[in-house]
Design goal:
This protein is an alpha+beta fold and 99 residues long. It has one domain: 3-Layer(aba) Sandwich (GIY-YIG endonuclease). 35% of the residues lie in helices and 23% in strands. The longest helix is centred in the middle third of the chain and has 12 residues, at 57-68. It is globular and about 30 Å long. The model has no long low-confidence stretch (mean pLDDT 87).
Length: 99
C-alpha cells in the first residue's frame, strides 16, 4: 500500500480541496507555492487536513471522486476520524505549515 495517496487540504478561506498524488510532499509544496491548482492558488494558505494511502493510482482516483461527492459535514467527519499513523507519506505532517 502507499503507491498513491488521496488527500484533503483546508484552504485559507476554510474550504476543503480534495486530490490525489503519488508524491504528497511534492504536491503539497506545489499547492503552497500556488502552482498545483487554480482553486488552491486563490485560497492560500493551505494545510494538509487528511491523507490516506491507496493501493494504486486507480484506487486513489476513485477515492478522490468518492470524497468529492460527500457533503461538507461528511468530509469534516472523515478529517476528524483521521488519526496520526505510521502510514503517512514520509516528510508530511497533517496541518503542518510551510517551512
Amino acid at each position: 500500500m502507499g503507491d498513491a495517496w488521496v488527500y484533503m487540504l483546508r484552504c485559507g478561506d476554510g474550504s476543503l480541496y480534495t486530490g490525489w498524488s503519488t508524491d504528497v510532499p511534492r504536491r503539497l509544496a506545489r499547492h503552497r507555492a500556488g502552482q498545483a491548482s487554480r482553486y488552491t492558488a486563490s485560497r492560500l494558505p493551505v494545510e494538509l487536513a487528511f491523507v490516506a494511502p491507496m493501493a494504486d493510482r486507480t484506487a486513489a482516483r476513485r477515492e478522490e471522486a468518492r470524497i468529492k461527492a460527500l457533503d461538507r459535514a461528511a468530509k469534516l467527519a472523515l478529517i476528524a476520524a483521521d488519526a496520526p499513523c505510521a502510514t503517512k507519506p514520509r516528510g508530511v505532517r497533517r496541518g503542518a505549515g510551510p517551512g
